[in-house]
């Protein structure tokens, strides 16, 4: 039996030729090469597929195209499914990718320092950052339109929050 570990969840289609976006659940994600097997849980068990293309959009987001998924409709049928890799392919000890963000400072383009990440809520659409500031928890969706940069060395996340989002929490 192959020892598998969850790489991430397919979140949406990308383009018209069957590619999709993946939110990674684990740290130490390896670079995936052409023809490398990945597994998707389908109807009772993991089914192997082979990578055609894979690129990182950020440290925990991938764009992937696999053999056999060649249309937008086929990619959309995969939304919500988990992708697995053989456990020995991971580069780092097991650790949730969201946990490595704990304590990172969050800076808004307009408001400056907002606070520190105290948690990450997982939901089917996208993760949500929990940012602590003076006893208040601010919730910010982790989406490309808001999260602009993650600096792993400086332990910072730079966002561009929609008008009123931060004030909603700070001004009650």
Structure notes:
The structure is a single chain. With 172 residues, this protein is mostly beta strands. It has two domains: 4-92, RimM (Elongation Factor Tu (Ef-tu), domain 3); 98-170, SH3 type barrels, CATH 2.30.30.240. 7% of the residues lie in helices and 48% in strands. The protein contains two helices and twelve strands; from the N terminus they run βββββαβββββββα. The chain has a six-stranded antiparallel barrel with strand order 1-2-5-4-3-6. It is elongated, with a radius of gyration of 17 Å. The mean pLDDT is 86.
Task: Describe the secondary-structure layout.
Elements: E1 4-14, E2 19-24, E3 37-42, E4 45-58, E5 61-66, H1 72-77, E6 82-86, E7 105-108, E8 112-121, E9 128-133, E10 136-141, E11 147-151, E12 156-159, H2 165-170
Parallel strand pairs: 7-12
Antiparallel strand pairs: 1-2, 1-6, 2-5, 3-4, 3-6, 4-5, 7-8, 8-9, 9-10, 11-12
Number of helices: 2
CATH class categorisation of the largest domain: Mainly Beta
And the CATH topology of the largest domain? Elongation Factor Tu (Ef-tu), domain 3
Straight-line N-to-C gap: 53 Å
Kindly state the number of beta strands.
Answer: 12
Q: What structural class is derived from the secondary structure elements? A: mainly beta
Spatial order of the strands in the main sheet? 1-2-5-4-3-6
Return the average pLDDT rounded to an integer: 86
In brief, what are we looking at here?
By secondary structure, the chain is mainly beta.
